[in-house]
Amino acid sequence: MRGPGKRAGVALWGAILGEGRGCAVRKLPSEPPSSEITPEPLYRRRELLKNGVLTAGTAVVVGSGLLSLVGAAPRDAPEEQPLVHAAVPTARGPYDTDEPPTSYQSVTTYNNFYEFGLDKGDPAKKAHTLQTRPWTVSVEGEVAQPRVIDVDTLLQWFTPEERVYRMRCVEAWSMVIPWLGFPLAELIKRLEPTGNAKFVELVTLLDPKQMPGQRSSALEWPYVEGLRMDEAMHPLTLLAVGLYGTVLPNQNGAPLRLVVPWKYGFKGVKSIVTIRFTETQPKTTWALAAPREYGFYANVNPSVNHPRWSQATERRIGELGRRPTLPFNGYAEEVESLYAGLDLRQNF
Amino acid sequence: MTAFDDAVPARPRAPARRPAPRQAAPLPWLKPGVFIGALAPLASIALRASRDELGANPIAQVENELGLTALILLVASLACTPARRLLGWTWPTRVRRELGLFAFFYASLHVFTYLVPDQGLDWGVIVEDVTRRPFITVGFLAFVLLVPLAFTSTAASIRRLGYRRWNRLHQLAYLAAVLAVVHFIWRVKIDVSQPLIYASVLGALLLVRVAVWARQRSARREERRPGASGPATSR
Predict the structure, then answer these.
(1) Range of the domain at A133
(2) A317 neighbourhood in chain B, CB within 8 Å
(3) Reported ipTM
């Protein structure tokens, strides 16, 4: 009852005031002289210009805000990685794949090396802080003679050979990489582990000054990986010191890293400073971080489901389509016998 | 009040006070500016693709950027009403539908990239992903929720559905954003700091809504109480 009556009253007042507005109620401000009034075409042009500028300004603010939040600014493009000694892969050994190697650019700019940041482009940009000489490796645990060995001594002991291996990341991408290195087995034989040595544990350098990513608590540092003794002694297992015929770039784990081609890439511990022989299974970094997702064995296995990535297929870097993933990353013939009697679904 | 509702016809509570006929739409530069700016992430992808600068795994890169852009725009669209309530800004409401539709546009491109270039339309793998990988399940659900919102974003839809029903429907935008953030958190391998930023922004926006809603409810209860004096504070 109150509502309509009030509204009608307002309308009435509006009608009255609307007619006589200005004359009776308020005094109009004095009009500017006609010389000061902007001519209509000029006014229109000014309006147009003003709106154009404001539109462009809004677009720049919105666009640059989005680009910086998404991290899509062009500065993120990886630098060209110069390959110093382009070495054509030579005589194929019995373990080499004849698949075309992934480009040097991709191998050296697409890296998971959290010690230098979580983005795959970070290691190539930031790993220059790593000092790879002098570099020593401490040999510890169940071994005849614990000692510290200079990495250059290792290079005198063993002549690096080229191995063209497939590398399968647990994130369902893969590469083909021509490594330079020597079999871990040769080093182990020389170090003479004791009869108690059932496992070998390999540890990355711990130094947040050189490896700024270690200041974050993304993972527990230092990075630890390990192998069963028979896995470590397998002729496929390599300690790499180079790739593409040249010295190992820092972002790929210089000066010394592990390569186990039938296992997911995270087993390949980088920038190794400790080799420890143990009687018990080492507590490895990713298995500690997410035990449901990453196991100690981490054999490439298309039939064991990962909660995040289907392991049935993979994308070879440089290709657009996916290809099926092979058991043991295509090295089943060589390594299957190591796991006879072991439930690989349980021991993933 | 939810996303996409800047097309709401004038409601009785806010009668047009000054029907300035000579004046064009206010802030005529706002919508075109936002439109061009919102295309920047797509333009950047196209530019870098043409220069081969998308890195070693371009499909994954594009997929991630499209998804993140969709999430940012969705959260931005949901910030418009709280901005008006808290800061008194009305201009964000003018671009809310635009932001919401761009969020849907980028989400569609994200899903398309996953389905076609990434999985090569391998329906076996896709069905397994959607049903067995929780992070993909929630992401897929978030996208599905956005579809009816995008298709009812017009003023005609508001008229057809009636404002109340339409408004209720568009509250799904919040659910979609929550699911999208969960999708992001579960996707990340180890460091969830970035998705948690989006989660906290979204949480803050939700809190504003809840606070406003609670205040309105108590005000309405006050109004209904017999003998209540004074005008209602809101509405």
Answers:
(1) 79-284
(2) 56-57
(3) 0.82
